[in-house]
């Protein structure tokens, strides 16, 4: 049973102190953080402050060349067992979503029975050659991101990720205030501090999937033109379909079928480049290429932001063996991501003012500035 205590201070700030079921494996033995909801946090772009606990390790012990990691790798490489793990991982995602009132099956059915298919023809660049790593199975889909089912389920999966990150939130909206609000606030704070008053007129969302992160960026920066770029024409078709259906600034958001490692877009053409929850799906070579491409695309003083799993997250470091084995079975490049020094890669590429902040209990946001 969950309880929350809400009180208001004289300045209008709202404090929410939430306790959760003591049987929860995520927070067993410790209280959730005390969260301050600023007035701006009532919208999707508002920030939420909290102290998110880091673990004692540099990265989870189930990554890299550790005995646990090698054991998990051996289990995953055994194909009959891998098939069972993949199915189990999928069922965990769906059940987690539906237990928190996210209608996974209903949302998927609505997309698959819509006229979304015609959008793919208008958006797909048939000249694109997909990198080898992108053709791997991801997230329990044999075709990875190149399938209608993966695209139809992506938004529900994203909602589930947010609820899983903030299990003590009373609603998806409150969870988004933390996960999305803190990410957006980190971008805005960095830009205000380091951009030299560069106005935000062009924003690029690399690896935009079905456009969830793109919509949040569009809401946060309402005067900017937004571009969402992704390698999957299926995901982009859903993004464009949803944008038209919801009438959410259709003319202000442009969808681009492209490779984040080499976008083909003009140099020095964006004020913010964001990559949200993408790099953990990439090998190290692709991570380095995307960081270098972001630097090329940004104007001097522009802000680069990456939000993704934090290797130092206490929760991720303390995942149960069953959960981290299931996770690794659907994320073929998770080890490479955790072993990559992302901040070092940014600095080596030429970025300045590289900073990292835990923006929720599972994720970090790394921001940097394109040099003047």
Order of helices and strands: EEEEHHHHHHEHEHEEHEHHHHEE
For the record, give the distance between the C-alpha atoms at the N and C termini, rounded to a whole number. 53 Å
Number of helices: 13
Roughly how many Å is the radius of gyration?
A: 20 Å
What can you see in these coordinates?
This protein is of the alpha/beta class and 372 residues long. It is 41% helix and 18% strand. The strands form 2 sheets. It has a 7-stranded mixed sheet, with helices on both faces. The protein has a 4-stranded antiparallel sheet with strand order 1-2-3-4. The longest helix is centred in the middle third of the chain and has 23 residues, at 172-194. The chain is globular, with a radius of gyration of 20 Å.
């Amino acid at each position: 049973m969950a309880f929350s205590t809400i009180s208001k201070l004289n300045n209008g700030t709202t404090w929410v102190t939430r306790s959760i079921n003591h049987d929860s494996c995520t927070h067993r033995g410790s209280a959730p953080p005390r969260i301050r909801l600023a007035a701006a946090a009532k919208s999707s772009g508002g920030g939420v402050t909290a102290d998110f606990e880091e673990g004692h390790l540099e990265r989870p012990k189930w990554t890299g060349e550790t005995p646990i990691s090698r054991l998990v790798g051996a289990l995953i490489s055994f194909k009959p067992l891998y098939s069972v793990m993949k199915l189990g991982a999928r069922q965990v995602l769906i059940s987690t979503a539906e237990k928190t009132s996210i209608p996974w099956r209903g949302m998927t059915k609505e997309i698959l029975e819509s006229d979304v298919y015609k959008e793919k023809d208008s958006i797909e660049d048939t000249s694109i050659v997909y990198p080898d790593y992108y053709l791997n199975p991801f997230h329990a889909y044999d075709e990875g991101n190149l399938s209608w089912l993966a695209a139809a389920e992506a938004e529900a999966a994203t909602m589930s990720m947010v609820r899983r990150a903030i299990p003590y939130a009373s609603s998806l909206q409150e969870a988004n205030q933390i996960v999305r609000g803190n990410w957006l606030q980190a971008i805005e704070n960095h830009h205000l501090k380091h951009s030299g008053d560069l106005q935000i007129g062009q924003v690029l969302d690399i690896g935009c999937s079905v456009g969830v992160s793109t919509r949040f960026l569009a809401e946060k920066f309402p005067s900017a033109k937004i571009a969402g770029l992704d390698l999957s024409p299926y995901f982009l078709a859903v993004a464009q379909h949803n944008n038209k259906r919801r009438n959410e600034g259709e003319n202000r958001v442009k969808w681009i079928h492209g490779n984040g490692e080499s976008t083909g877009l003009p140099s020095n053409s964006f004020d913010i480049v964001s990559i949200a929850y993408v790099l953990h799906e990439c090998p190290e070579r692709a991570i380095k290429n995307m960081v270098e491409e972001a630097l090329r695309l940004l104007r001097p003083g522009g802000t680069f932001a990456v939000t993704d799993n934090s290797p130092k997250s206490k929760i991720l470091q303390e995942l149960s063996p069953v959960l981290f084995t299931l996770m690794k079975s659907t994320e073929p490049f998770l080890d490479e991501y955790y072993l990559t020094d992302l901040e070092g890669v940014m600095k080596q590429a030429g970025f300045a003012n590289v900073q990292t902040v835990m923006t929720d209990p599972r994720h970090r946001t790394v921001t940097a500035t394109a040099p003047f």
